[in-house]
Amino acid sequence: MPKPLTINTPFPTTEGICPDSYSLAVISPAYASPTGELNAILQYFYHYFNFDKQGYEEYASTLESIAIAEMLHLEILGKTILALGAQPIYCQNPPTAYNFYSAKYVTYSRNLTNMIEDDIIGEKRAIALYTKMLCRLKNEQIKGIIARILEDEKLHLEKLKEILNGLRC
Length: 169
Prior knowledge:
Layout: H1 21-27, H2 29-32, H3 37-53, H4 57-83, H5 112-136, H6 140-168
């Protein structure tokens, strides 16, 4: 399995985080909402399969590496949600068990260029979401986790723009 596409900085630990309903409410949308990490994983794998099938191995590998990075983000967010006092169920706002995640939020474009454009939109939304979270969060440890994830999302956006430029040439 390829390495995740991440910056070369370790993720902050979740050890020592105490239950905190405010921080939980702030970060939960990044977990399993239509713009969250779970959706990103599924969308990147869908796009990876299509790029690979059409012979774009380098681009496919990059998309797979981004998907694996998003898996790491989902893992750290899940552990953070647990530490904050909720079960990391696949819904928009754990621990409230409604608005469960649905794969209908994945963009199922068939055109490769459109796929990357959809991914770029997704990364821009993720960057905006994480940036807004940083402004709202009061817990410095959780801010560190979110800031670290944000840096990966910026890297993903750069790589996606490179792929888009390559497809247009």
